[in-house]
Amino acid sequence: MLLLLGSVFGWLWALGTYLVRQLPEATIPSARWLHAALAIPSGYILLFLSALARVFSTSMPSFKPAWALAIVPLHLLSMGCIFYSLYYVARALRSVELQRPAQFAEFVGEFFLLWFYPVGIWFIQPRINRLAGHAF
């Protein structure tokens, strides 16, 4: 799980950082928002996995209901950050291709392709390679 999410988040980080450099300033927000939006779910996943390991590492149950209440808002925040990351990269990709700020209707396809990562990468990555000038 960590390897898969690490590769997805790393790819989105690299893609967003590269694409925002190809746009005129003030077209879309800086990549700092993207970096924060990817750091939050990464930290949440590490925190959740370490807490889960702690719960299952002892013979006595150490589960506390207060932690369960904290999981819901943290999980919703993490999901929102992931969706923002997908939105940001999809918008940046389409804006670079159009050379103007893209509207949501123009990049909704890219958004869903990024969301369905294993299949979407087959369609998105060749476009990225063309933008970068590579013919792989």
TrEMBL record:
Transmembrane segments: 32-53, 65-87, 107-124
Keyword field contains Membrane: yes
Keyword terms: Membrane, Transmembrane, Transmembrane helix
Superkingdom of the source species: Bacteria
Name recorded for this polypeptide: DUF4234 domain-containing protein
